[in-house]
Amino acid sequence: MRSIELFSGAGGMALGLEKAGFDSVAHFERDADACATLRHNRPSWNIVQGDVRNVDFGAYGPVDLVAGGPPCQPFSMGGKAKGFEDNRDMFPQAVRAVRELQPTAFVFENVRGLLRPAFANYVEFIRLQLTYPVFPVSDNVDWEANFRRLQRHHTSKNRNGELTYNVTINLADAADYGVPQRRHRVFFVGFRRDLDLGWSFPAPTHTQDDLLRNKYITGEYWTRHGLPPLAAPETMLGRVEKLRSGELLADTLPWRTVRDQLSDLPDPRDACTKHRWDNHGFQPGAKSYPGHTGSPLDEPAKALKAGDHGVPGGENMLRHLNGQIRYFTIRESARIQTFPDNYVFPGSWTESMRQLGNAVPVQLGQAVFESVGAVMKKYRPLKTAAHANV
Question: pTM value?
Answer without folding.
Answer: 0.90
